[in-house]
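ARCHIVE CARD
SHELF: 3
SLOT: left
DATA:
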Amino acid sequence: MATGSSAKKVARLAQKGKGKKVRFQGGTLFPTVMAVVIVLGLGLVVYARQSAPNLNVPPTANDHWHISYGFYKCDAFLPNLVGGKEDPPSPEYIKYNVHSHDDGVIHWHASALAAGNRAKLGLFFQTYGVKVNTDGIFFPEDQNNGESYPVEDTKCKDASGKEVDAQVQVIVWDRYDNSTNSRKLITDFNNIRIDKDGMAMTFAIAAPGVDIPMPPSAANLPELGLVDMAPGTATTVPGSPDTTNAPTTTAGE
């Protein structure tokens, strides 16, 4: 049992400690470093979850999809992109396995980097060096004679026939054979999801509010999709004809 003198000493020490902050040995450096490590760790976890492909979401690496597309200026379609990019294979084609055959059709074979929630329109633009953003539509030298259509220099006629400042817009149809079901986007075009086989898209620079048509290739998308189907395989485009024993083509994989 503590003596009276010892009890008084304990009481005096307790009184002196009131209001004083507890400090880690070495100052505040260690807890600061630990806090930074924890924040960075949580950030990496969130990034990994967002960037990793969801293998249960189509298109998978086994899918072979076709999307009708066209570039549209004011009131008419521009030429389709040219070059299949697979012979010789471009670095982008090797990475994504996404390309076209001069036919107004995106052939989406979907590598691991272009599958699931990574299947976005920007991969197709990147493969051909085309830029489509709110500032305009810009082609590289090997496409459409290297023409550029910045909104600040482009005037188009509106529904009343008056020339107004053009606007970049992408019209997306869920099905190539249903022109009544569409949505219009006016920004963030690179992140448009490729989430269905047989979609149709028109990349337009036109007057706001005007009607923008489906791309011409939508009219015969199933037939165009056959260009790189393996013999004896049915095209995956919804509503396409049976292609069993179809003639062999060598346009690309």
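SLOT: right
DATA:
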Amino acid sequence: MVLVDTVYQRVLTLANKEQRGYITPHEFNLFANQAQMDIFEQYFYDLSQFMRRPGNSSEHADMVTILEDNISLFEASAPIVYDGGADLVQVADMYRISTVHFNAQSVPGQPGEHILIERVSEKDLRIMGRGPLTKPTKKRPVYILRGNNIYLSPITPGTFHVSYIRKPAKVEWSSVSVSGNELYDSTNSVDFELHPSEETKLVIKVLSLAGITLKDPALHQGAEQQDNKNIQQEKQ
């Protein structure tokens, strides 16, 4: 976790160092959430790239291990009771799905058979449905994914267990007015959910976005150059 107030104060200090302008709390919150999602989404691209390279014998220096640890902060699971009234299960905060298990209830009120449900494409599902041997059954169900909606085939009442990578919670720097001054309100603020090692990267990315709003090319370009430098160091 990275404290939102720490990032906010660092950003204000750096942005105002040369009288470049003031970043409002509303602007900061917009930039902060964009920065967090940029870093979060980059984990998956970097992981794919580093998994194609030879590993490192030290777990503390191996980028695959580091990235997997960062992603693991967002691993989640949700049991969902499904009554068969529709053909989908929705997981609101899901970013990427991992696995879907299903407890099929052949007898009401009794635990059902534990089944791992295979994910298929819509094209594959259409092809599977054409033949009696390939058609999905209650013993061999499948699902397709559209956004955060899991569409089931066949439709069977029971309890699903969805394992997935969730999205980071929305960042919020909140304030309370005291004697005409806006002071940090820790009670109603929401911190970054990224690993503490990402604090500097968050500051740089927020500054880069702020430079565009403040119409300060030097601030934007300086932050971008530092961000690119950090990326190159990570990938060496």
